TrEMBL record:
InterPro entries associated with the record: CheY-like_superfamily, HATPase_C_sf, HATPase_dom, His_kinase_dom, PAS, PAS-like_dom_sf, Sensor_HK_TwoCompSys, Sig_transdc_His_kin-like_C
SUPFAM superfamilies: ATPase domain of HSP90 chaperone/DNA topoisomerase II/histidine kinase, CheY-like, PYP-like sensor domain (PAS domain)
Compartments (UniProt record): Cytoplasm
Catalytic activity: ATP + protein L-histidine = ADP + protein N-phospho-L-histidine
Keywords noted in UniProt: 4Fe-4S, Cytoplasm, Iron, Iron-sulfur, Kinase, Metal-binding, Phosphoprotein, Transferase, Two-component regulatory system
Function of the protein: Member of the two-component regulatory system NreB/NreC involved in the control of dissimilatory nitrate/nitrite reduction in response to oxygen. NreB functions as a direct oxygen sensor histidine kinase which is autophosphorylated, in the absence of oxygen, probably at the conserved histidine residue, and transfers its phosphate group probably to a conserved aspartate residue of NreC. NreB/NreC activates the expression of the nitrate (narGHJI) and nitrite (nir) reductase operons, as well as the putative nitrate transporter gene narT.
UniProt organism field: Puia dinghuensis
Taxonomy of the source species: Bacteria, Pseudomonadati, Bacteroidota, Chitinophagia, Chitinophagales
Required cofactor names: [4Fe-4S] cluster
Enzyme class: transferase
Protein name: Oxygen sensor histidine kinase NreB
Positions in coiled-coil regions: none
């Protein structure tokens, strides 16, 4: 034994004490020993020396082993206590062992003493480790109980065998409105609204309180063993208000985006109108005056060559005026007040450039009545206008059909037989993005179906029963 062992020896015979020393040194014990002969010395050394092991003779002139054992236990000392005596009855030895002594050794058999000391020390160490483990377990259970009972989040435990609630904390009782007895006696399915298949799975589920209120709950479940029984520990976090707040934020963001879209559309319409008027009222008037001058010159000129040059210029001038007229009509929004959407679309088709070879058909068989919202009519007019422009410029189509339907939704379909494209590979252009923004403002849906060589179908559906009504942005007038 390398570590020095502190031994307290209760012995009144010096020769017997030395004999014990010889036996221990022979067994290669490294020890420090103090010998006492009476009660006073025993108690003092017990407190000051704090021995690792106590050896005690049975009978001393004014003291004995029974009193020594009792005192050591009263002092709350768990030090191994070994009786080392010359003679003792077997009954007494058994009684001393029952009272807490580790062992007893007869003086004529001291060769057993080293093993007895080692065994007593090992046993004491194991007992101490067991006590520490028990104390750690009790401490852990107390901490767990505190964390479970005093946790501000609703928690309960469900037996994996019976699927019944076996424990519930105060937060769950307060939040759900059930008493502890009601919780422990209820079928766990009563907490889950609609018999959700995710009864004990982590995730977001709907729970039902005692008063019938339905709440959204984020459940965190964990398999564990409680009192040697497999259980599911459940923590329930009520996120009803959080989800409502997130939904409201999303709704406000959607409204804000629609206000931005509407403002952008109004700005575009105003800019288009100003440009169209500028072209029509100013530039076209200048060209018209120039045309009058050419009329005069052509009537009076006689040279054939110069007249031919002037006529070419005259034709180009006419062509430029027609182009400006077409451009002005496309830029300036039509006055839809008192005009049905179908009538506006017929007028749009009639005013298409004469240079286009596209054959257009407007199908209004399912258009029963008109809509009162002029802004929505203008939106549909612009969608058709943008898509027809796309078809004329890019599709190389020979025919196109516009279908207008009215049910609970405004259904608009524009189909062409052009070259088509792959919607997954082609990035939507400005025109389609503009259409998508306009449709989104009215909570509508837009769908594009196309494939190379198979033309294109643009479908727009806008709900009429719940049109989005927003505060119209006020735009400053620019004179």
């Amino acid at each position: 034994m390398n570590q020095s062992l502190k031994i307290l020896h209760l012995e009144d015979l010096e020769a017997d004490a030395e004999m014990v020393d010889r036996v221990l040194r022979k067994a290669k014990f490294n020890f420090e020993k103090r010998v006492v002969i009476d009660r006073e010395g025993f108690v003092r050394q017990l407190r000051e020396f704090q021995p690792d092991v106590i050896l005690s003779d049975h009978s001393l002139p004014s003291f004995n082993s029974s009193e020594a054992l009792r005192i050591s236990r009263e002092e709350a000392v768990d030090t191994p206590f070994i009786l080392v005596t010359a003679t003792v009855s077997e009954e007494y030895a058994v009684s001393v062992i029952k009272e807490g002594a580790s062992d007893y050794i007869l003086k004529d058999r001291l060769e057993r003493l080293p093993n007895a000391i080692q065994n007593a020390l090992d046993k004491g160490r194991m007992e101490n480790e067991r006590r520490q483990a028990d104390e750690a377990l009790r401490s852990s259970e107390q901490k767990y109980k505190l964390l479970f009972e005093k946790n501000p989040m609703p928690m309960w435990m469900v037996s994996q065998k019976s699927l019944s609630i076996i424990a519930v904390n105060e937060a769950a009782i307060t939040h759900y409105g059930y008493t502890r007895e009601e919780f422990l006696s209820m079928n766990t399915g009563r907490l889950w609204n609609g018999g959700s298949p995710g009864l004990y799975l982590s995730g977001i589920w709907k729970h039902q309180k005692k008063d019938g209120a339905t709440i959204d709950v984020e459940v965190i479940s964990h398999d564990m063993v409680h009192e040697q029984e497999p259980v599911i520990l459940i923590l329930a976090n009520d996120i009803t208000e959080k989800l409502r707040a997130e939904a409201e934020l999303a709704r406000q963001a959607d409204i804000q985006q629609k206000l931005i879209t509407q403002t952008s559309i109004q700005v575009q319409e105003r800019e288009r109108e100003e440009i169209g008027k500028e072209l029509h009222d100013n530039i076209n008037q200048i060209l018209a005056a120039t045309k009058l001058y050419l009329d005069v010159v052509l009537k009076e000129i006689g040279e054939h060559e110069q007249k031919d040059i002037l006529q070419k210029g005259y034709r180009n001038l006419n062509f430029a005026m027609e182009e400006i007229r077409q451009l002005s009509q496309s830029l300036v929004a039509p006055t839809l007040g008192g005009m049905g959407l179908d009538q506006a679309l017929y007028k749009l088709i009639d005013n298409l450039p004469s240079t286009t070879s596209l054959q257009l058909t407007l199908d209004t068989e399912g258009w029963l009545g008109d809509i009162a919202d002029d802004s929505l009519k203008l939106t549909c007019y612009r969608i058709v206008q943008v898509q027809l422009n796309n078809i004329i410029k890019h599709a190389k189509a020979k025919k196109a059909t516009i279908r207008l339907r009215k049910t609970d939704n405004l259904e608009l379909t524009i189909q062409d037989d052009g070259i088509g494209f792959n919607p997954e590979k082609r990035i939507p252009g400005i025109g389609l993005r503009n259409i998508r923004n306009r449709v989104g403002y009215y909570n509508g849906q837009m769908k594009v179906q196309s494939a190379p060589g198979q033309g294109c179908i643009l479908t727009v559906s806008i709900p009429l029963s719940s049109q989005t009504k927003l505060v119209e942005p006020v735009l400053a007038n620019h004179e």
